Amino acid sequence: MFSAIRKMLREWKGLQAFKRTPREERKLVFYSEGRGYWTYFDPIYKALQANHRTPVLYVTSAENDPLLEKPLPGMRSFYIGEGSMRTLFFATLDADVLLMTMPDLQSFHIKRSPFSVHYTYLHHSIVSTHMIYRAAAFDHFDSILCVGPHHVTETRAREKLLELPPKALIEHGYGRLDTILESGRQGPHERHGDPVQILVAPTWGENGLIERHGLDVIRPLIDAGLKVVLRPHPRTRKLAPDKLDVIVAHYRNEPRFRLDEDSDATTSLLDSDIMLSDWSGAALEFSLGLERPVIFADVPRKVLNSEYPAIGIEPIEVQAREHLGVVVSTDELAELGHIACAMAADSKKWQTALKDIRQRWIYNSGQSGDTAAAYLVSLIK
């Protein structure tokens, strides 16, 4: 009980500290729902500092966010938790611009404030807007930083269908992808006899690959001599921990198996030759950022909006599968090891195709931060 009281007191102090910030200094606010989201803000923050010297007020719901203890130059940070103080923060916000990665503004308890705040949405996935998100997820933002042409087409189609006011749609790009590109690690690894590494990174939910198939996913990969890194979605750990515990216990003494639950996961991404996924947006980051192929297990689609066909556009995560790798039926999971080895042997061919797809599907590759920073500065009063 006392720890809960201390936590709420800390959140209250964070909210009051934000409110004490003079209104003329509340120009640009970043809201982060968890410590793993900074990777999406980072390129924009860097461009704001390098090109515009624009200060940022960083508000986070993560109690262990490292930017609370060590805010970056040009930043002041505030902790508000994810309960009543966060609700109060949004309800009373008075600032020029709020940039956030959390959808569903106005749909539930997180509302627009009565003040004249410009709400900008920053996509934290390449996937489409209309199938894995709730129907009204983006309806109440003033502007959206779009990853590629698909986001513009989908958003305009929904606005037309429902006669919604048009939002400002910015041809932005994807900062997470830019960070991967900066690594310079594109293309196949030179293994020199070491085993091929496959990153298993599915989405979460009752139809998720791990939730539905568990050990049957990992076993054929280990049996084929591959090195396997399992990176579950954080929601799988929360909602189906028993599925993960069974796998980890089974391979406790297997040196070619590793569980990765690091919030960043960049190392596992960069070091892997192939990814095995289902409907996760991470598959698009891996293939388009590192120019390496993906095996897509054909579990049922992840659908939060059952009316997604109404706009008449196939989601990009559906279109992408046949371009970015191969689709494998769940009846063929026993063949995953052989399929992965064959793809690794043909990795040069995949690299050429994936580089071309990135250039067509993603705005401003390598420069998205500059684009977003310039737009946000233009909104400041």
From TrEMBL:
Gene3D superfamilies attached to this UniProt entry: 3.40.50.12580
Keywords: Transferase
Membrane-spanning intervals of the chain: none
GO molecular function, one term: CDP-glycerol glycerophosphotransferase activity
GO cellular component: membrane
Organism domain of life: Bacteria
Protein name (record): CDP-glycerol--glycerophosphate glycerophosphotransferase
Organism (species): Pseudomonas veronii
